[in-house]
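A brief tutorial aside. Many learners find it easier to grasp structure tokens once they have seen a single protein encoded end to end. The record that follows does exactly this for histidine kinase. Read the sequence first, then the structure, and try to relate runs of similar tokens to stretches of the chain.
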Amino acid sequence: MEGGCAVRGPLSSLLPRSIRARFTIAAAALALVALTVIGAGVDYSIRNMIEDHIYKETGRVATDWIASMRPDRIPPPITTPRIDLLQLVDSRQHVVAASAAAAGRPPLSTLLPPTDDRIQSGTRCSPGTGCLMLTAVRIFPQEVGLLWGGETHVVYAAMRQPPVLATRELELVTAGLVLVGVGLVALTTWLLVGRTLRPVAAIRSRIAEITVSDLSLRVPEPRSDDEIGQLARTANRTLAQLEESVAYQRHFASMVSHELKNPVAGLQTQLEEALLYPGQVDRDETIRSALSTATRLRAIIDDMLVFARVRNVSPEGPAPVDLTRLVRDEVVARATGVPVRADAEPGVRVLGNHIQLAAVVSNLMVNAQRHAATSVEVTVRRSGGHAVVAVTDDGDGIALRDRERVFEPFVRLQDGRRRDPKGSGLGLAISRAIALAHDGTLTIEDSPRGARFVLRLPLFDAGPPPRAEGAPEGLEGRDGDSGRRGPAREAVRTT
């Protein structure tokens, strides 16, 4: 198939596109098959029941007549309103005695039951008389010996076949009831499916009204907790997330344009001055300044790409990460500047991307060193099913009102601008995005002095980490002096 188009078969092309109609047709077809089978069974049972009742009655009338016969006389048969045809026939097919309705007629049947099966029933049809339902009873040999000197005699008791059996009336009634039943099933299915799909139609109508410019609308939620109710609630949650994402993207785009506007404007001004006043402007200084501005622009763009990638793409290839070893490696890497002390519980493991988590820890340590007065302390602990990494400095701290603002993209406090004028303001935003991508959190908590950044990640319980080959027992100390650097990673700029 070209273009990925599905080829519809001849059967599917004949079916209606409406789910309601398809369910109704399917239910009607199943009902037709089931009710036809049931109707045929009921018809067969009714016929058998009527025939059995008639044959029992004809057999009883025949045996009663036989019981009343005497050697000196044969009494007239006692008929019933329905069983009025009785005949006594000898072995030469001569009618010896008969009821008034059967007098003058030839033998009702030529059926001669054997001695071991004296009573037999059946239906006999002829063009003149129609169909008769009769029972043939062969008289006992003892009685035959007393009455007729051993000559075989048979009594026939019959009645005309009732119309319910002689015609197709029963089949027509059964077929009519089957069709009525199929119609009721189809109507019920049509109404039930229509009622069931009514919320779906409302959801579809509301979704058709939603546009990218207005994502505030929500689909109606049924009160029931069935599949349609769950679909509506899922759709509303998806719409809420989509609205939040679009709003965030618009806000982020606005902030990006604001952050890039000033460096681009400054770069343009410098280059225009160099062209307008070639004799008054030092071109080498202009080029160096333009390169510096371009470098800052590139750094901002790189950070924006990292932030967008971390926020929108889940970590690839999650694997167990030893946070204890990772923190100690980062502490060793911070050998210059304000001293960093580590207090790491051994064997704290999480599941995630080693490079991204190392970038978060490195970012937090660099920030802490930048704002600390004399020292930075890093702790790694297990707490309530989470790995907790706390980075605390002894600087001026962060005001309570700014503890969430610092995680917003491009937000830089006054002290941060003073200490790092070339920062992009994306470091903490990237760090929080990485934490969220790992089902964790990154927050600022109260501290007696300075700022305390706390990273929480779900623990990975896979047993203690394997000890490095050749490493002596007790190397996993408090000060993180493993002396080995972790894998190379992408640079993430800090705030």
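Self-check: The mean pLDDT is 80. If you spotted this yourself, you are ready for the next section.
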